[in-house]
């Protein structure tokens, strides 16, 4: 039987700034059943006149309900979460959702993570859930240094985790790579060879995910080992 997910009250208990347009929000959710790295939640906001809207957000931490929200200009939900919601305020939350795009600490294969923009959020949760020596490589595509999520953490990753940042619009001074979109050469140089048979997780905008998946298959990776999570341009 499929477990029916109930809406739960979630109280904001912490917030921290990640970039000029992104914050991480920590919630206390009584009755929360726990979750796996890579899962997400549904958020529901209801106005005084009864109008209600929902959005989905990836869980950013393996041991607590933490959401990293990227503010979308003109959005309906993300500006409220990023700018209006205050410590002690309560929203409704439902989850955890998803059982396909997940990584469990009991798994032993090498892991390749490829993230575009805020698609790095569930991938960071996987890195944070890693408790053994399973080797990880993260290839993170982002427009500029100012938009880099979890910057200090990813600049000093734990042992056995290699992080490569690909800047698409503007690279920091002294960067060995000129700005530009992620290429097959980048994945060949910074990902795992296909004959290592890694588990691959790709997350980001739909176009990014489709392009990266095609590159990985062209490089010889087994399509059955490539798991994807995508979001459309209108999400906020």
How does this structure look, described?
This is Ferredoxin reductase. Residues 5-103 form the FAD-binding FR-type domain. Its cofactor is FAD. Pfam families: FAD_binding_6 (PF00970), NAD_binding_1 (PF00175). It is a single chain. By secondary structure, the protein is α/β, with parallel strands linked by helices. The protein has two domains: 8-97, Beta Barrel (Elongation Factor Tu (Ef-tu), domain 3); 111-231, Nucleotide-binding domain of ferredoxin-NADP reductase (FNR) module (Rossmann fold, 3-Layer(aba) Sandwich). The protein is built from five helices and eleven strands; from the N terminus they run E-E-E-E-E-H-E-E-H-E-H-E-H-E-H-E. The strands form two sheets. A six-stranded antiparallel β-sheet has the order 4-3-6-1-2-5. It has a five-stranded parallel β-sheet with strand order 9-8-7-10-11, sandwiched between helices. The radius of gyration is 18 Å and the shape is globular.
Structure at a glance:
With 236 residues, the chain is an alpha/beta fold.
The order of strands across the largest sheet is 4-3-6-1-2-5
In angstroms, what separates the terminal alpha carbons?
A: 32 Å
**Class based on secondary structure composition and strand pairing:** alpha/beta
CATH C-level name of the largest domain: Alpha Beta
Helix count, per DSSP? Answer: 5
C-alpha geometry: globular
CATH fold field value of the largest domain: Rossmann fold
- Helix content estimate: 10-25%
> Count of DSSP E strands?
11
What would you say the CATH architecture of the largest domain is?
3-Layer(aba) Sandwich
Largest sheet: 6 strands, antiparallel
CA radius of gyration: 18 Å
Unreliable stretches, pLDDT < 50, 5 or more residues? none
Order of helices and strands: EEEEEHEEHEHEHEHE
For the residues shown, what is the average pLDDT?
A: 94
CATH superfamily of the largest domain: Nucleotide-binding domain of ferredoxin-NADP reductase (FNR) module
What portion of residues belong to β-strands?
25-35%
Number of domains: 2
């Amino acid at each position: 039987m499929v477990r029916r997910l109930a809406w739960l009250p979630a109280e904001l208990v912490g917030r921290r700034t990640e970039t000029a347009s992104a914050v991480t929000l920590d919630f206390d959710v009584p009755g929360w059943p726990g979750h796996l790295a890579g899962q997400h939640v549904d958020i529901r906001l209801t106005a005084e006149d009864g109008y209600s809207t929902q959005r989905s957000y990836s869980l950013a931490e393996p041991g607590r309900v933490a959401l990293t929200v990227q503010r979308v200009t003109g959005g309906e939900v993300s500006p409220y979460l990023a700018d209006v919601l205050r410590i002690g305020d309560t929203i409704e939350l439902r989850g955890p959702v998803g059982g396909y795009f997940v990584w469990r600490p009991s798994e032993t294969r090498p892991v390749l993570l490829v993230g575009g923009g805020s698609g790095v959020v569930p991938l960071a949760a996987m890195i944070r859930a890693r408790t053994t020596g399973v080797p990880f490589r993260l290839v993170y595509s982002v427009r500029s240094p100012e938009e880099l999520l979890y910057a200090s953490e990813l600049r000093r990753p734990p042992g056995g985790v290699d992080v490569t940042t690909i800047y698409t619009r503007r690279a920091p001074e002294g960067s060995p790579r000129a700005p530009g979109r992620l290429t097959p050469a980048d994945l060949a140089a910074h990902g795992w060879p296909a004959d290592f048979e890694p588990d691959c997780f790709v997350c980001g905008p739909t176009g990014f995910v489709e392009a990266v998946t095609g590159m990985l298959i062209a490089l010889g990776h087994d399509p059955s080992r490539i798991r994807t999570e995508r979001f459309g341009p209108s999400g906020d």
